[in-house]
Amino acid sequence: MRSLAPGPASLVKSQEGIVFLLALLAFLAFALFLPAFFSAGNLLTLVRSVSILGILALGMALVVVGRGIDVSMVATMVVSVSWAFALSRSGYPLEVALLIGAGFALLTGIIIGFAVAVGEVPPIFATLAAGSIIYGLGRTFFFTLEMQNVPPGEDWFALIGQGRILGIPVTVVAFAMLCFVAHILLSRTRFGWQLYAMGNNPEAAKITGVPFRPMVVAQYAISAFVAFGAGLILASSASAINARLYNSTFIYDILLVVVLGGIGLNGGHGKIRNVILGTMFVGILLNGMTIMNIPFTVQNLVKGVVLLFAIIIDSLVNPRDEQTSQQGDL
Amino acid sequence: MSKSLLIKLMAVAWVVFVPFAAQAQNKGLENPRSTAFHGELEGKNVVFLPLSMGFDLTEGWAAKMRQQAERLNYNFEIRDPAWSTDAGTRALQSLIGEKPDLIVAHNPDIQSYARLLARAQAEGIKVIQINLESNTQTDSYVGADWTEIGQQAALAVVDRCAEGKGVSSKVAIDTGVPTAASDVFQLDGIYRVLDQHPEIEVVSQQATEYNPEKARAIMETVLQQHPDLCGAIGIWDNQDTGTASAIQQAGKGDQVFLVTSGGGNMVGCENVSKGLFSLYISYNVPLQGDILNAEIARLLRSDADAGEMKAMYFNPLTLITKDDVNQRNCWTLEDLQ
């Protein structure tokens, strides 16, 4: 076990440490050179702007730790929430519509889980296919317009994404609470220990009595449900949701956070603090680049280079060997 | 012939022929142009290649085009590439092989379809471009003049934020994706006006990828940096719900003048009534649909070869503020279907 506060020498030896130093460096540079970067208001804005990304990354992290990946999260998120809005506009009470949306998200997660656990489809292919099926279903049967405004007359819904608790946006509070829950789940429960065992060595985990298939189904059900929750916050804070998000690079941003934070894609290791670190680093970069008014294409370039950098370090620090590499490994 | 017989004959003639004459009069005149108009288009093939179905603009135009196709008995088909330029290019290539009579193309950017559209015309397929142009001018273009929209938006903002008028002269611009006709031409329009007003300071120009949440995060950050922001220009109503949301949450709804543009869908209009958009420049999808239909009929009936005569029409814009949200300016998809 690494200690929580590694010394300066050990910092540069782990990817996590390097990303931490980079994040710190970026933070200090922005704080020094950008006026109003280091203000309470801007820092809250910074955290809030990446909270939704962070929440999705938490769901992704759970799956990745168990040696899976879920690239259908964005599809599940936009379709379940858009469908709920469409149902509500067609006459259902919003509460009922949201329950149906949540049920749909859970169901997709469970079906994906079955495909991976029982059908033994590599997770990347199962979720890639599931993503386009979910999106296709949504567009064909659930709603005609991709852009769904929050149904009118439901003021309570705005509180999810726009309210504040003791001056802190609900979005940020939700991210913090979910981090805590996920941390307890991973470090203090049997589910968490078994997840690490599965990620480290699936074959050994099966032999030693980990309920492998139910665990896999549970992982994808959780990530789908997290996606639904993130979608609610997203829709509430922007007063609308655009299903077209499925066609954007959002899913790669989620992976960027997970990998950047230091959760290896070959599974079996990584903690919630990695997700927080990755989220904050992306947040600092995005906020600083927006303040500096850097053009869109250059921002994408910076994000891409940073991701590549993190993946290279990941493969240097966590080298592949016979034990860790397997079919379906990314 | 006795006089009485003559009278009888005349009476019979009157009884027999007058009703026929009267009947002919009641039936009016056949208009050969009407018969031709309704018959000539039968069996023709029209294909619509949108950016993607599933949003207000394309659904609106498609509803209008479908109605006319049913009325005039020609075939109308949609090839939906679902936002993928690749899929769109492939669809266009296969259409060139299938040779429909007319393609209505909605360009993802000014470059991608340009050559293929020229090739389609060379193969004898007539091409109308709708609302988003490419570099190739084809048989017809129907849609907004993005330069004009940019100018109108910038003028409105200048009017509010010129020296001494607003809290400052700071303006933010939210674009969509940098390569679409709507972005490149609109930005040109905006800067044509702003260059005349050097006192206006553009403090932020960021791309939102049409994502309302990203637009919200950007505007939130901009407002942190520039709490005295006076105006904002957004490039599309669908994304600017998020921009407006950030402005409202910062409590600056009265301070920041937000101009956006869109097809005039009721969803956008609702946002004007709620005070989220200060000015909504509408390019009026139902009107565009009508003009599009007129162009389709004209081109299908015309003897000219594809690409021989190039026409274009920039449709008028409607400036919608809180006072002009009404049935005439705003529409729902159900209205059109």
UniProtKB/TrEMBL annotation, chain A:
CDD domains: TM_PBP1_transp_AraH_like (cd06579). It is found in: Cell membrane. GO terms for cellular component: plasma membrane. It is a multi-pass membrane protein. This is ABC transporter permease. It holds the Pfam family BPD_transp_2. Keywords: Cell inner membrane, Cell membrane, Membrane, Transmembrane, Transmembrane helix, Transport.
TrEMBL record, chain B:
Coiled coil: none annotated. The keyword DNA-binding does not apply. Its main location: other. GO terms for cellular component: cell envelope. The keyword Signal applies. Residues 1-24 form the signal peptide. Residues 49-301 form the Periplasmic binding protein domain. It is found in: Cell envelope. Keywords: Signal. Belongs to the bacterial solute-binding protein 2 family. This is Sugar ABC transporter substrate-binding protein. It comes from Pacificispira spongiicola.
